[in-house]
Amino acid sequence: MCGQGSAFHREEHTNIEIEPCPSALSMLSIFIGDHRKLQKDFLALPKMVKQQKRRGLDILKSTVSVEDPTMKKFAAVLAIALASLSTVSAQCPRIITRAGWGARAANTAVLPTRPAPWVVMHHTAGAHCTTDAACAQQMRNIQNMHMDTNGWADIGYNWCVGENGAAYEGRGWGRQGAHAPNHNSRSVGVCIFGNFTSVIPNLAARNAAQQLITCGVSLGHIASNYWLIGHRQSNATACPGNAFFENLRTWPRFNPNP
């Protein structure tokens, strides 16, 4: 902290660089610039949330006792950010990153319209999955099909959700998907594993999907006034299945006439 020498000290996993008092402004700008990445790190590493919060609080305790006005501003921003990270973490479902399910490397375009004003729901129309291993295998299967058979740059969906209650990172936030031709450039595509022509996704999957949308809004990737639609409302298809589509009509922000 301030007065402990001139060398930078990096708090592992926090991306906060701390140096002597003369460069306190740079600390503040580094923190503000990286806070969305910190949020993503928190979501990707849920077991480390408490540890990271403790580290942040240690930094906060060190800064609040310093008389430098800039350091006090930094402490205030840090306190707000820690509270924000705790809130966002609570709003998001369990996240399985691309590394977590064994994704192939891919290079996709940035989403042109951000935050996304639309969320498009899909089903795979295939097998259901209720375990982490089975859902991860589904992700790999779909990615292989989309890349090797369809010739796409990556798995088409931004996110997939399993009936194990976890959300799987596809193209992820802020990337243009390949899931609904009329909405790809302005939407987040969320797919639930399974065929929902006659049955609806289980409660774990429905909750995880709705939490994922709330999470996206909290992180600034989905517009707060977004509209939710089913794939069939974007182009001619049976997706996301008759039963699921009827259930989708009851979800917040559903738009019956997009």
From TrEMBL:
<keyword id="KW-0399">Innate immunity</keyword>
<dbReference type="InterPro" id="IPR002502">
    <property type="entry name" value="Amidase_domain"/>
</dbReference>
<feature type="domain" description="Peptidoglycan recognition protein family">
    <location>
        <begin position="93"/>
        <end position="235"/>
    </location>
</feature>
<dbReference type="GO" id="GO:0045087">
    <property type="term" value="P:innate immune response"/>
</dbReference>
<protein>
    <recommendedName>
        <fullName>Peptidoglycan-recognition protein</fullName>
    </recommendedName>
</protein>
<dbReference type="Pfam" id="PF01510">
    <property type="entry name" value="Amidase_2"/>
</dbReference>
<dbReference type="InterPro" id="IPR006619">
    <property type="entry name" value="PGRP_domain_met/bac"/>
</dbReference>
<dbReference type="InterPro" id="IPR015510">
    <property type="entry name" value="PGRP"/>
</dbReference>
<dbReference type="InterPro" id="IPR036505">
    <property type="entry name" value="Amidase/PGRP_sf"/>
</dbReference>
<comment type="similarity">
    <text>Belongs to the N-acetylmuramoyl-L-alanine amidase 2 family.</text>
</comment>
<feature type="domain" description="N-acetylmuramoyl-L-alanine amidase">
    <location>
        <begin position="103"/>
        <end position="241"/>
    </location>
</feature>
<keyword id="KW-0391">Immunity</keyword>
